[in-house]
């Protein structure tokens, strides 16, 4: 029941969205094609009756007619199979496109992708949830849903044939024998219940093992990705041995769980194979005495055997599909866990931020660390007018960047309020982010690159000593590896000139620059963006002259130094 609730939690948004009408049409077409397949199977069952009767009667003309009917039935079977596959795949693509897009929007909404990392490690590998699990959820859900529907239709379609055929079977009880109405139906039902129950009992550990396998494989892939992203640092540390140890540990964890999974699957597979294969001969042995006594011809025996197989297969569908059901349950558990984690993240916690053009106003700002509860800042307030600036200084590890995070809405362990032009605010981090794409796309990020302004871009590059990059704007490569950290930081300042923000937060954005280059960057900011409010995090005394207010945070001697305006702060 919990799994079905999880399924509906995941599926309901799509089936109630604007895509529901075309999706329902595709689902209806898929169902009709599957019903067509059931109809062909029913006709094929009666074909068995007439064809094998013709063989037993040595009726060559009926045999030839049966051959033509067989070709027509196979043509119909092929047509319905291809059509069912076509409509099912179109529905899969439509559902997958909507589901992935909707999940990505929820993940990106209110910066949840970052808040999930900052506020707890409960969600493992969210990229896998989006890239792999949604695909598996949709494909398996459609396959299982259509499979159950087809099994039920087949069951009731062939029950009548099997029920009537049961009247031909008499048990050797009494002088005339005992005929039990629907005997073959009851045998198929009991056999299927026993098989289904056994499969569920033997495979009860499969959902948990599948869940663990997906997690451990994702952890292993993540460690490989980290090697690629931090290749230079690892090489400088000569950390190959330590990395190999990490790879080996995570690989071994995945392989050990995989072997446990294989051992359980072996048991279920062996049981299911024996169970399904033995079912094909049961009706033969039950009907054999009456057949050899001449009660009915070969065609009737063949028809009854085929009908028993269809009824039994429909009843035993869950046995055959149990490995997929186990995988489906594990996927639903992972996706519902991911969505519940997203829904639990509230953007209302932390600093209350409101839009206010031009000035920056921070009121009663309190910051603390979630683990230790240590207070970083208490009751801090400040007003900064256009063109003014604030420099925040503190010892390394004190939590200076946390102040920028809180004011920008990225730190929930805070209280107070902040008002500024939220639509024209920009943060420069110590390590600039370089997205995928060519250099033009990177420099214009997060805006869409504008080719018509290449001259403006080239002029900005020249100002920051990056003129040699102007001829490489169309080049697409891993620029975060091609450029030094100092060049990357200057590229970030080029972005500032292109965006012209009203509020600019600089989180140690010049840490890799020499004093001359740092001075150049700040001087250009002051000249090109005289009305922009600057809030800087830094250590160097050389930054003092570029800021109208300075805030010193020191646990031993909290103080505030302000050349032009006094600030008070306690910690």
From TrEMBL:
Signal peptide: none annotated. Residues 28-327 form the ABC transmembrane type-1 domain. GO terms for cellular component: plasma membrane. The keyword Transferase does not apply. It is a multi-pass membrane protein. Residues 362-571 form the ABC transporter domain. SUPFAM superfamilies: ABC transporter transmembrane region (SSF90123), P-loop containing nucleoside triphosphate hydrolases (SSF52540). Coiled coil: none annotated. Its main location: membrane. One of its GO terms (molecular function) is ATP hydrolysis activity. It is found in: Cell membrane. This is ABC transporter ATP-binding protein. InterPro entries: AAA+_ATPase (IPR003593), ABC1_TM_dom (IPR011527), ABC1_TM_sf (IPR036640), ABC_transporter-like_ATP-bd (IPR003439), ABC_transporter_sub-D (IPR050835), P-loop_NTPase (IPR027417). Keywords: ATP-binding, Membrane, Nucleotide-binding, Transmembrane, Transmembrane helix, Transport. It holds the Pfam family ABC_tran.
């Amino acid at each position: 029941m919990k799994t079905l609730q999880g399924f509906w939690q995941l599926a309901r948004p799509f089936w109630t969205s604007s895509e529901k009408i075309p999706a329902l049409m595709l689902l209806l077409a898929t169902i009709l094609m599957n019903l067509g397949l059931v109809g062909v199977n029913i006709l094929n069952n009666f074909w068995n009756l007439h064809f094998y009767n013709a063989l037993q009667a040595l009726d060559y003309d009926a045999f030839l007619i049966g051959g033509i009917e067989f070709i027509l039935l196979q043509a119909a079977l092929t047509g319905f199979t291809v059509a069912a596959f076509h409509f099912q795949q179109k529905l899969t693509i439509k559902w997958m496109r909507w589901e992935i897009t909707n999940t990505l929007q929820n993940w990106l909404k209110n910066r949840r992708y970052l808040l999930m990392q900052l506020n707890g490690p409960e969600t493992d590998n969210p990229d896998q949830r989006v890239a792999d699990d949604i695909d598996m959820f949709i494909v398996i859900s459609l396959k299982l849903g259509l499979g159950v529907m087809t099994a039920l239709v087949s069951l009731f379609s062939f029950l009548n044939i099997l029920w009537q055929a049961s009247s031909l079977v008499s048990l050797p009880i009494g002088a005339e024998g005992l005929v039990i109405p629907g005997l073959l139906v009851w045998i198929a039902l009991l056999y299927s219940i026993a098989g289904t129950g056994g499969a569920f009992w033997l495979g009860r550990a499969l959902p948990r093992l599948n869940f663990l396998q997906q997690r451990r494989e994702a952890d292993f892939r993540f460690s490989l990705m980290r090697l690629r992203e931090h290749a230079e640092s690892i090489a400088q540390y000569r950390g190959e041995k330590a990395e190999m140890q990490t790879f080996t540990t995570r690989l071994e964890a995945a392989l050990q769980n995989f072997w446990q999974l294989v051992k359980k699957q072996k048991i279920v597979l062996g049981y299911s194979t024996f169970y399904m294969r033995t079912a094909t001969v049961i009706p033969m042995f039950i009907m054999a005495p009456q057949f050899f006594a001449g009660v009915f011809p070969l065609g009737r025996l063949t028809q009854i055997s085929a009908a028993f197989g269809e009824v039994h297969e429909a009843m035993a569908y869950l046995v055959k599909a149990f490995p997929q059901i186990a995988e489906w349950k594990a996927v639903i558990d992972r996706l519902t866990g991911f969505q519940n984690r997203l829904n639990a993240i509230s953007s209302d916690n932390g600093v209350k931020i409101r839009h206010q053009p031009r000035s920056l106003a921070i009121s009663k700002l309190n910051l603390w660390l979630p683990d230790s509860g240590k207070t970083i800042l208490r009751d801090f307030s400040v007003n900064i007018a256009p063109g003014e600036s604030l420099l925040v200084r503190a010892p390394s590890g004190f939590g200076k960047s946390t102040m920028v995070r809180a004011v920008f809405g990225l730190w929930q362990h805070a209280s107070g309020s902040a008002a500024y032009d939220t639509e024209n605010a920009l943060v420069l981090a110590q390590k600039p982010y370089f997205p995928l794409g060519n250099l033009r796309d990177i420099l214009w990020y997060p805006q869409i690159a504008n080719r018509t302004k290449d001259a403006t871009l080239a002029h900005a590059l020249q100002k920051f000593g990056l003129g040699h990059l102007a001829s490489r704007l169309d080049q697409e490569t891993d620029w975060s590896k091609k450029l030094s950290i100092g060049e990357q930081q200057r590229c970030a300042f080029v972005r500032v000139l292109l965006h012209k923000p009203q509020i600019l937060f600089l989180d140690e954005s010049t840490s890799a620059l020499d004093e001359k280059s740092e001075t150049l960057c700040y001087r250009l900011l002051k000249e090109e963006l005289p009305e922009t409010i600057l809030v800087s995090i830094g250590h160097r005394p050389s930054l003092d002259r570029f800021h109208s207010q300075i805030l010193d945070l020191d646990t031993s001697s909290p103080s505030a130094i302000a050349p032009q305006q006094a600030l008070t702060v306690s910690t």
